[in-house]
């Protein structure tokens, strides 16, 4: 049941981010679709606790991360031999992801740790961009993203390594909390990466961070609104 948020936030972010996707690339929607697929496979895994369910869950996360890399990785971080060619970078990411998909069957016990290590690399890139930018909206979205991700990761680590303690006090919900927190992190991370990407790929556009259902509400779901085509540099 804690994966239901994946199926709520995924379609909602597709709707809210559609104006941005129209300007940037409709492939942006693939991230939200894979996010929903991850939620479905996670449901299947936790209902069955099967080996197949575990692999489907982890492979879906792998391809979700790969899609984000392909679309939003700033060209300045590409390997030098690619010469900032996004098409070549995307092909490289797909090749590595396909190989990693097959390798995940060999040592499934390390899959979760490998996936979290990728998240640390994304965190490193986001921190580098945070240091560069003076955009207050981007800084705030990055701050919230990092705090939510850290809270989610803390829940996952506590559940993984201190399970016996939580069983002893009859508290069995940390993994569910991980699901909810990471699903809330997704919209913030998506907007943060899209804003970073826009500073490189869409300098002529003015993007505004808005919150659904109301900007004035204390809590809301972030998305990007495209304001104009005549941004002055």
From TrEMBL:
One BP term from GO: keratinocyte differentiation
Q: How does it sit in the membrane?
A: Multi-pass membrane protein
| Record's signal peptide | none
EC class:
hydrolase
Q: Which cofactor does it need?
A: Zn(2+)
Instruction: Report any Pfam family annotated for this entry.
Output: Ceramidase
Pathway, per UniProt?
Answer: Lipid metabolism; sphingolipid metabolism; Sphingolipid metabolism
Which key words tag this protein in UniProt?
Answer: Hydrolase, Lipid metabolism, Membrane, Metal-binding, Sphingolipid metabolism, Transmembrane, Transmembrane helix, Zinc
User: Cellular component GO terms, alphabetically?
Assistant: endoplasmic reticulum; membrane
Annotated residues that bind Zn(2+) are located at 46, 175, 179
The UniProt transmembrane annotation reads: 6-21, 33-53, 59-77, 89-106, 112-128, 140-157, 177-196
Q: What InterPro entries does the annotation carry? A: ACER
Q: What does the record give as the reaction this protein catalyses?
A: N-(9Z-octadecenoyl)-sphing-4-enine + H2O = sphing-4-enine + (9Z)-octadecenoate; an N-acylsphinganine + H2O = sphinganine + a fatty acid; an N-acylsphing-4-enine + H2O = sphing-4-enine + a fatty acid
Q: Which family does it belong to?
A: Belongs to the alkaline ceramidase family.
Q: What is this protein called?
A: Alkaline ceramidase
Name the species this protein comes from.
Answer: Loxodonta africana
């Amino acid at each position: 049941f804690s994966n239901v948020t994946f199926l709520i936030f995924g379609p909602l972010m597709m709707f809210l981010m559609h104006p941005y996707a129209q300007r940037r690339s409709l492939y942006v929607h693939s991230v939200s679709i894979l996010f929903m697929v991850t939620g479905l496979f996670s449901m299947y895994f936790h209902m069955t606790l099967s080996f197949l369910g575990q692999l489907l869950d982890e492979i879906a996360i792998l391809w979700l991360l790969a899609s984000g890399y392909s679309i939003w990785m700033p060209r300045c971080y590409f390997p030098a031999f690619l010469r900032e060619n996004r098409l070549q970078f995307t092909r490289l990411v797909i090749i590595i992801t396909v190989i990693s998909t097959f390798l995940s069957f060999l040592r499934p016990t390390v899959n979760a740790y490998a996936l979290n290590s990728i998240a640390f690399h994304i965190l490193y890139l986001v921190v580098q961009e945070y240091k560069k930018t003076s955009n207050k909206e981007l800084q705030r979205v990055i701050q919230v993203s990092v705090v939510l991700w850290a809270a989610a990761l803390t829940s996952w680590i506590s559940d993984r390594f201190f399970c016996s303690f939580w069983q002893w006090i009859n508290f069995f919900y940390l993994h569910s909390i991980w699901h909810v927190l990471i699903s809330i992190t997704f919209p913030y991370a998506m907007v943060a990466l899209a804003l970073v990407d826009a500073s490189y790929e869409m300098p002529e556009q003015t993007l505004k961070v808005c919150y659904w259902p109301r900007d004035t509400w204390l809590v809301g779901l972030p998305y990007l609104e495209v304001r104009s085509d005549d941004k002055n540099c």
